[in-house]
Amino acid sequence: MVVLRGLRRRWNAYKYRFVPWLAFNVRRQRRTLRYVPESSQDKIVPDEIVLETLLKVFTALLVNDFGRHVPALSLLPAVGRRYAQLRSAALQPGAGSSRSRQVLLSPEEVLFRTLGFSVTRDRSSLLSAGTGVFVSKGFVPKGALVAMYPGTVYRKHEPIFFQSLGNPFIFRCIDGILIDGNDKGLSRSVYRSCSWRDQLGPFQMSDVSWLTAAPQNPLAVGQYVNNCSYEKAANVCYQEFDVPRHFPVELKQYLPNIVYSHEIESHLRCVVLVTLRDIKQGEELFSNYYTIVN
Ligand SMILES: C[S@@+](CC[C@H](N)C(=O)[O-])C[C@H]1O[C@@H](n2cnc3c(N)ncnc32)[C@H](O)[C@@H]1O
């Protein structure tokens, strides 16, 4: 009996890393476990709002990190001019005093000043669930973008077998696209290598800092959100977002996703986490691992 219970506990902790089990259950349970009604294909947050939110946060991060970007920005005059406009808009009276804006703030503080909350990783409130993600400051209203799911983006036929072994961070989109959000081992090396491959002169086309303990994009912690349970209902949900081609090149350095290969022209797939209800400071985020809105 004790042995059986032990085995069951180990399986419950392991099954989310077992890709065939995940694939089977996503397909089988999509109908019953989705938080959006079957009749509705609408996203909880429209794409335009997701884009607007990302642009707002990324611009604030760029403005805050001004010194580091001056050499790169001066190489592309058009981008430099756009950046100068963004910066002066951000420094206008009413957008915070210019003196306080000159000080380099932590990314979490920039997020708090921009969206009214910040999120961080910490020990989960669930026993033996490892790390989780918490609203560390402020308040997140229902229907807001609260985090991003970082990682390498694989299309169906692309080789992910070795990266997937014992990997609990593989996220499956409804159309079969996979996102590997593991910040360790082979997954980490693949992400870094793709990121170097895509670098455009001084411009990074993606953010590699989510692989560290101090991500420069503070939203890029969604891979650490734990699964809901009877006691802890889901308060966030996954939503797919394709990055439009016109996304500003100077802001791509904050995107925590990269495509594994460039075989065909396609949009970069991101997955964002959006809130299902108001979430207060100190609360942990919980998702349903089978809930995706495409
Ligand atoms: C994507 S990871 C989430 C981050 C993880 N907590 C960590 O510290 O790395 C998924 C893994 O977290 C653990 N986990 C997630 N939700 C859980 C829950 N409700 N109860 C127990 N463990 C959970 C399982 O080990 C699962 O394989």
Molecular structure report:
It comes from Phasianus colchicus. This is SET domain containing 9. The chain has 294 residues and is an alpha/beta fold. The chain has a single domain, classed as SET domain (Beta-clip-like, Beta Complex). Helices cover 35% and strands 19% of the residues. It contains nine helices and twelve strands. The strands form four sheets. The protein has a four-stranded mixed beta sheet with strand order 3-10-8-12, with helices on one face. Strands 5-6-4-9 form a four-stranded mixed beta sheet. Helix 3 crosses helix 7. It is globular. The site of S-adenosylmethionine has 17 residues, from strand 2 and strand 7.
Keywords:
single chain; 294 residues; alpha/beta; Beta-clip-like; four-stranded mixed β-sheet; 9 helices; globular; binds S-adenosylmethionine
In short:
Helices cover 35% and strands 19% of the residues. The chain is an alpha/beta fold and 294 residues long. The chain has a single domain (2-53, 106-293), classed as Beta-clip-like (Beta Complex).
Fold blueprint:
Blueprint: H1 2-14, H2 19-33, H3 47-64, H4 66-75, H5 77-90, H6 98-102, H7 107-115, E1 117-123, E2 131-138, E3 145-149, E4 151-154, H8 161-164, E5 170-172, E6 178-180, H9 185-198, E7 226-227, E8 236-243, E9 257-259, E10 268-275, E11 286-287, E12 292-293
Parallel strand pairs: 4-9, 7-11, 8-12
Antiparallel strand pairs: 1-2, 3-10, 4-6, 5-6, 8-10
The structure holds S-adenosylmethionine.
